[in-house]
Amino acid sequence: MKNRGLSDKTFDRINKLFVTFIVLIVVYPLIFVISASISDPGAVSTGKMWLWPVDITLEGFKRVFQNQDIWTGYRNTIFYTLLGTLIHLFILLPCAYALSRKELKGKKIILWFILFTMLFNGGMIPTYLVVKTLGMLDTVWAIVIPNVVGAWSILVARAFFQQTIPNDLVEASKIDGASDFHIFRKIVLPLSLPIIAVMALFHAVSLWNQYFSALIYLSDRDMYPLQLILREILIVNQMGLEEGSAGVMESLVEQVKTASLVKYAVIIVSTLPLLIVYPFLQRFFVKGVLIGSVKE
Amino acid sequence: MKSNGEQLNIPYSKNRKFYRAKKNLFLNWQLYVFLLPALTYFFIIHYIPMYGVQIAFKDFIATKGILGSPWTGFDHFERFFNSYYFWRLLKNTLAINFYQLLLFPLPIIFALMLNELRNGAFKKWSQTLTYAPHFISVVVLVGMLVAFLDPLTGLVNNAIVALGGESVPFLTSPEWFRHIYVWSGEWQALGWGTIIYLAALAGVNPELHEAAKVDGATRMQRILRINLPSILPTVVILFILDIGKFMSIGFEKVLLMQNSLNSETSDIIQTFVYETGLLEGQYSFAAAIGLFDSIINIILLVIVNQIARKTSENSLW
Questions:
Q1: What is the pLDDT of residues B89-126, one digit of tens each?
Q2: Phi then psi for B58, rounded to 5 degrees?
Q3: Which domain holds residue B239?
Q4: pLDDT tier at B304 (50, 70, 90 boundaries)?
Q5: CA pair distance B176, B174, nearest whole angstrom
Q6: What is the pLDDT of residue A240?
Q7: Strand, helix or coil for residue B71
Q8: Which end of chain B is more exposed for a tag (fewer CB within 10 A), N or C?
Q9: CA dihedral defined by A47, A51, A54, A59, rounded to 10 degrees?
Q10: Which residue of chain B is at minimal alpha-carbon distance from A231?
């Protein structure tokens, strides 16, 4: 019996080897981007730089910080993310709390009303027409209001409230004459910091990273979020060059030069805030995924 | 002093139910106020577009509004089904989603591997590092692809040329599109996808393993006969949820990766809706195609859920 299959030690070694291999594959592109952002673009494009930085230069970052579009985009993204997250919490938390209370009648209908939106939606065009009719085009509302809260988050937050807010405490306060507003503010919210953190983080990340709402709802360049600016720098200009269809010839040479200098630096500048913050908040994110998996 | 229901002597009446509802509303009206922002949001941003989807059966004219526009019945659908690009769009949409679905087991396998690691620090680092790509935006991801796969200056082609091969224009070749799309997505999602499975694995009863050890089961046998079946319910639910996103997933990334040279395989239903609807302004036609897309999606979800309910104990409803 003992000799059947691999011994524990061999198994562990092989397993560790495989995991290491996978981790390296996942991490390599990230390291490459970081190294490329501070290397001489010539060394990067000829393949001289493949792991560690070569001919270190900060020219890329300098260009990024000189680029007015990137600054504006950054500012806009921060603003959209903060505002959007606040509204998200403002809509999500009271609703999820109310749905967690036993004394709320008609819960079933309300839940169906919300859950049905997961199953079916009008689609891109009818939604666009509504946003347009409401006069939200080219305003911050077009970015923060559509998708401000999903049925899924409401279910998740509701499950959290059901499990963590002691019913006795709420009822006792009610008998003492506290209103639901008061209870929500003074008792429920302070007990719910983990779920608030989780929900805020998930929503903030998705707002930070989204480009499509801005693409269809905004036409004013001054309002573009960072991701749309990145799309121009990293994809539209690059692909344009590749296809040979870039319009203005005189700026082409300049574009190529700037683009190759800037592209890795701009990835770092736009992504680093999340990648730096995330390991410290990892437990919140993991928690969020897990609460989300609780079956209703 | 405000108090709960029992102390508020509301007189007995034939219409007791009505009184109870009224009493409930009187006592808990603030809870209903709590619901208002969310219900308003869902009504305006989700239900009005559901009503607006009727433009798929109309010839939408902006000045006449949704109600005033003339009915056309199934004209838009017929036009779509009879068009030469219909089969191409359907094929591309299905192909890319099935391809994606084929990789569904990878996070499970990776989670089983991570779960076998003893070393706390090594395991933790492996997790933290493989979760990281999840936080990269689609724009940056596609930007990285453009940079890495560039035929002249990209890392991948530099390596191919250095090894004596010939540079490949990956992003402008239809035959490469699906592979690049799906595998770059896997790079981003593999680590993150293990979180739920790892939690499920942490809940496996250790006594099962002890008993199996006594019976002489190997490590591999224990993984396959104990760990895997233990997380099967989780697997089924996640699989159904994945199917629920079928037809719609990844559209934003496809749109970024698309160009005139790879459109033979990169044209999918959703990008087509975007082009015809928002770029060309054929609102009704695009709404019809979008509706077709979501109906297929619902049918798939219902079928898979039904199969799951019949074959295992796990289903969404």
A1: 999 998 998 899 899 999 999 999 999 887 689 999 99
A2: -130, 175
A3: 91-311
A4: confident
A5: 5
A6: 55
A7: strand
A8: N
A9: 90
A10: B139
What's chain B's average pLDDT? 86
- Chain B nearest-CA residue for A270: B140
Q: Which residue has the tokens 């919490």?
A: A89
CATH topology of domain A61-292: MetI-like fold (1.10.3720)
Picking from B140, B155, B190, the nearest residue to A267 by CB comes out as B140
Largest CA-CA distance found in chain A, in angstroms, rounded: 76
The total number of structural domains in chain B stands at 1
* Residue closest to B300 by CA, chosen among B245, B234, B251: B245
DSSP E strands in B68-214: the ranges are none
What pLDDT score was predicted for residue A135? 93
Smallest Cβ distance to A227: which of B28, B133, B137? B137
Q: What is the ipTM of this complex?
A: 0.88
* DSSP β-bridge partners for residue B58: B71
Q: Closest Cα of chain A to B84: distance in Å?
A: 22
Q: Give dist(CA A167, CA A150) in Å, integer.
A: 26
CB contact under 8 A, A22 and B138: no
Mean pLDDT of B25-46: 90
Low-confidence stretches of chain A (pLDDT beneath 70): 1-6, 238-258, 292-296
Q: Is residue B36 part of a domain?
A: no
**What percent of chain A shows pLDDT beyond 70?**
89
- DSSP for B82-103, please give it: HSTHHHHHHHHHHHHHHHHHHT
Question: Which residue, chain included where needed, has tokens 């998930």?
Answer: A202
Dihedral angle at the C-alpha atoms of B58, B61, B66, B71, nearest 10 degrees? -20
Asked if B260's CB is within 8 angstroms of A243's CB, the reply is: yes
Q: CATH number of the domain that B298 lies in?
A: 1.10.3720.10
- For residue B190, being part of any structural domain is answered with yes
